[in-house]
Amino acid sequence: MPVFTRLRQQPDTSPEVEPEESSEPEAVAPPARRTLRTRFADFRDRHPTATRNTRWVITILAAVLVLGALLLPNRIEALHTDRFTRIPVEAILGAAVALALPRRPRLVVAVVSGVALGAMTVLNLLDMGFLEYLGRGFNLVLDWELLPDAQSYVEDAMGRTVAIAATVGVFVLIFLLLSVMALAMVRLSNLLARNKQAATRGTLLATVVWVLCSALGLQLGGIPVASDRTAQAVTIQARRVHDTLRDEAEFQKIAKVDAFGNTPPSQLVPDLRGKDMIFTFIESYGRSAIEDPVEAPGVDATLDARTEALAKAGFHAKSGWLTSATYGGSSWLGHSTTMSGLWISNQQRYRTLMASDHMSLTEAFKKTGDWDTVGIMPGVQKSWPESKFYGLDSYRNAFQMGYKGPKFSWSTMPDQYALQQFQNLEHSKKRSKPLMSLVILTSSHQPWAPIPKMVPWDDLGDGSVFDSIQKAGKNPSDIITSSPKSQAEYGKSVQYSVTALTEWLERYGTKDTVLVFLGDHQPIARVSGNHASRDVPISIVAKDPKVLEKIDDWGWTDGLRPAHNAPVWKMSSFRDKFLTAYGSTPHPKKG
């Protein structure tokens, strides 16, 4: 043991070995990388009050966003504060589901329901736009193809840059809306889960209050406190889809039935043989132009003055009202309803009609073999297969009339120029047959700025004369955002179109000319009002007194301005009434 102790305590006398020098630099350990989570934790620790307040603000914003979406109406005029002071039953049901589900299913349901609520908000906004411009809600089945037309309208009215920016902005807004709504739902569901006991009591209390308010019919400012707005909106959209699909099948049968479908050519419009027939639609020429306090004074004065001028030239007129199948836009629905005798109120019906062999009013003249048939279409800027349905031997689009002047917003050329080219290219030609023409005028198309002005007919040339008029005109962006300005300029545009058409008739019409002109639809709600009718004026003008004698029993008003109490027919009834009045014999074709 002593030997062992001595050995253990003996100092180490072995020589020291120096460490080898290395040529490699000594490695330095990298500093720990701070994650975003770590940084947030540090900020939270340093600023607990700010963090807590921020969380509350985010939570409140999420609640406001979700409640606002659940209570959002689908009409612009309904956007009032009282609409957002109700209790949505959907929020109560959503809270109950979130409290009942485990964490993972709860998060999935929150994301899905958030995206669905965002999509429903988009549909409500689309409804607002369609109700404002077309007087009807957005159709999930049919209306997607109208959105490119809306983009083209913005480009024509506001410029390409604005149109592109607006299109990009809409897509970004939709993406953000869907994303933020999903995140808001997740945040609220997490809040409920963390405070389950209090949330359960609050949900039960809200349920009792909602049921009582619903049972008692309690209202604030005329609006029910108990709301099921989103459930109603979903029901409305589902009903629209169902009705659209059912209507498609039903209309295919309707289109096959035609009271004059089997009428021999010799028995079609015999009382108009030898007449040059002109059917003209004036864009947005509606009842408001004649009766609205803002627009009517100028338009009525123009109609009265033009009635007098035509009378001096030997022409006389009778006028009435038709109820259009469309409102604010989709002019082709009004055109096809008038000419087919069928109610063409949506795009599906229009497509079905165009593919059918149902006889249009203009085609009836072609079937006789006694008329040449042409179309003047300054608003058409692409192929137009519909010309076959309208029975046109030929038609001229916006690029086939030699126009070298400026566009007037959406309108490719002024009506006066289009009518003069109709005269130069078609109406003045020597023919072996009289002419039946379908003319669509566009100068009164929204946004009603800039508006062309009448120039001496002999000075029209290639349309360059309108350069200075277009440059001096008003900016569309200044008009489109103001209801009073839109009303005033709309009235002026109708005055221009009516003047151009009737001056053309006065200048180039003959004893055998018969002009039928009408509006295709009322202007948008910003101009015609939220509760305006769908009525449009219609006039028949001729020199031959026998032409107007044929419609004496219609009860129409003498002159170009129909009386307030003049007969009102559905637009779809005009074809058969016209054919019958001028001697056509019905020979029904049954589906």
TrEMBL record:
<protein>
    <submittedName>
        <fullName>CDP-alcohol phosphatidyltransferase</fullName>
    </submittedName>
</protein>
<keyword id="KW-0472">Membrane</keyword>
<keyword id="KW-1133">Transmembrane helix</keyword>
<feature type="transmembrane region" description="Helical">
    <location>
        <begin position="198"/>
        <end position="220"/>
    </location>
</feature>
<feature type="transmembrane region" description="Helical">
    <location>
        <begin position="54"/>
        <end position="72"/>
    </location>
</feature>
<feature type="region of interest" description="Disordered">
    <location>
        <begin position="1"/>
        <end position="31"/>
    </location>
</feature>
<keyword id="KW-0812">Transmembrane</keyword>
<feature type="transmembrane region" description="Helical">
    <location>
        <begin position="84"/>
        <end position="101"/>
    </location>
</feature>
<feature type="transmembrane region" description="Helical">
    <location>
        <begin position="162"/>
        <end position="186"/>
    </location>
</feature>
<dbReference type="InterPro" id="IPR017850">
    <property type="entry name" value="Alkaline_phosphatase_core_sf"/>
</dbReference>
<feature type="transmembrane region" description="Helical">
    <location>
        <begin position="108"/>
        <end position="126"/>
    </location>
</feature>
<feature type="compositionally biased region" description="Acidic residues">
    <location>
        <begin position="15"/>
        <end position="24"/>
    </location>
</feature>
